[in-house]
UniProtKB/TrEMBL annotation:
GO molecular function, one term: diguanylate cyclase activity
InterPro entries to which the protein is assigned, alphabetical: Cyclic_di-GMP/3'3'-cGAMP_PDE (IPR052020), GGDEF_dom (IPR000160), HD/PDEase_dom (IPR003607), HD_GYP_dom (IPR037522), Nucleotide_cyclase (IPR029787), PAS (IPR000014), PAS-like_dom_sf (IPR035965), PAS_4 (IPR013656)
Protein name: Diguanylate cyclase
Domain HD-GYP, first and last residues per copy: 420-615
Keywords from the named record: Nucleotidyltransferase, Transferase
Residue span, GGDEF domain: 299-429
E.C. no: 2.7.7.65
Origin organism lineage: Bacteria, Bacillati, Bacillota, Clostridia, Halanaerobiales
Amino acid sequence: MLKIVLIINDLIEKAKVKSYLNKLNSSQEQFEFQLVAEFNDSSEAINFLYQNREIDILIIENSLKGIYSGIDFALLAEKEFPYSSIILISEENDNLNLSEYQLNNLNSVLTKLSNSDSFINSLRMTAIKQKQKLKNMAENRKILEDYQKIIDYNNDAIFLLELDDSNNFYYTRMNQSCLDLTGFKNRELEKYKTDDIFSSEIAEELKENINRCVREKQKVNFKSSLVFSSSQRIWDINLYPILKNDIVKEVVGSLTDISEIERKKKKLKYCLEHDILTGLYNKDYFIDKLKNLEIKEEAVYSFLFINIDSFNLYKNFYGFEKADELLKKSAEIINKIFKANSLKAQIDNALFAVLLENRSKNELISAAEAIKKEFSKLKLNNIKFDISVLIKSSNSEQKTLLDIFKISIDELKSIEYNLRDSQKSLFYKSHCDFIEKNNYNNLHHSSNLLELSKKTVLEFNLNEEASRKFMLLAKLHDIGKLTIDKNILKKGASLNKSEWKRYLSHVDKSAIFAASYYDLAEIYDLIYHHHEHFDGSGYPAALKEKEIPFLNRLFTLLNFYDNLKNNLYYPFKEDKYYFAALTDQEIAAEIDKYKGKVFDPKLSDKFIKKLIIGDK
């Protein structure tokens, strides 16, 4: 199959040429053509050709944009890519005077108006010539390459071996790079054998490959780790036979230091197979292993899945940096429990899988319990996490390992949904415990906020359903403040626009927190609108008057009172701040001042009477 590269900037011309190629391939002639690459830009094409020299035909447009015209590219290819044949495509009115150029590789010149028959016939002739050219070159290449290696790669370590009549070989010459490596001088090499220069193990490997080179009368390539000057490095070694009367009389060897290349290949292989953050295998590698794993008849394979069910909420709440820390800690736990004879992978965000072979039911249960125990100790930002652990094992009636894997993923989703009940969630409870343990100081509220809420519920005669929602609103409305920089919450001065925007974000965060649990989703709207103002000047939706739910209008008064009663710093509005706690009379005056603006006038009067002045 002849390999073709297109270097054509004209999209219409490129499409035509590709259609001609398809037509020729479908005709089932003696030649098959493979389009291996296509380029608009000549510099990209050059980079590709330097890395892929075995291209048979280059189809080049003369009016290329970029550094090289088509003829320039043909001239470069004549020197750098002599194995390739060239078809040049030009404009109809191009007056190409090719006689001044020596272009042995240029096989045909076509214009953009050439029809398909002209192009196909030209390609046929180019293919015939290319086949003959390759045959001729192959006959001469072997001898030429053997000696050209010595010149072209003189930075490599090169040595020359001579064989005697008994096929014993001796070093007769080394280039300077090889001498520097071995510490010898050429005049000292006479009658040295491989055993005299290399350790016995390496000498044996080298002798074996030299003998193969002599026996097969062809190039031998292998890699080896050789030690020179106390430095062990990886070498790519080529051995080239030099024949005289069809008998190998000498062997040229070249050593290329590929230690850095091998290191990069190893690193790339690691990156392709592992999650860089956690160091565990990634999903693609894990699934490939499942597909290719040879199932032993006597073996039982088991999966152990670990899912951090509260991960997405934690990431949305505290950000990517904290989420990454959680993933790394989780990987450490998994590596601690499963040290050997297991395949450990991060499947998706906070879903991990471990594949085990021939583990008893008790061993699997013990491993699951150990995982749960270690995760129960894990605390970040004083927060605990909800995890699911699922065990699945293969048996004679089971489907493939990949099928078991897919079924388990679906089952985990169901388990995760059940943990969206706040009363079953450690994540939820640890947040509430942390807030209550610190007397609501982290939310800049007083410790008697809930007591004041209970009193408000009673004074305003709320029914059981409304009372329950009001208490949840009081408890969770500012939970998003846990994610805000403490320097903003304690600034004690006016916030700049960026700081104010971050301060307002606690509304969204608090609402999303509640919406993440299906038993709290009903108060999402109440939390989301707890900073709306009666005249429409609030946020985030600028609702006004009766558009604002009754419980929000009532809670706005309670929230304001609690902040002014207990806070030393309260960003009330972007242009209004309080910097010290006020007395009840002062708070009543402030509420009266904002009646009809921030607060519902009717509710304001009643709130002042029943919960502020009425206490006196």
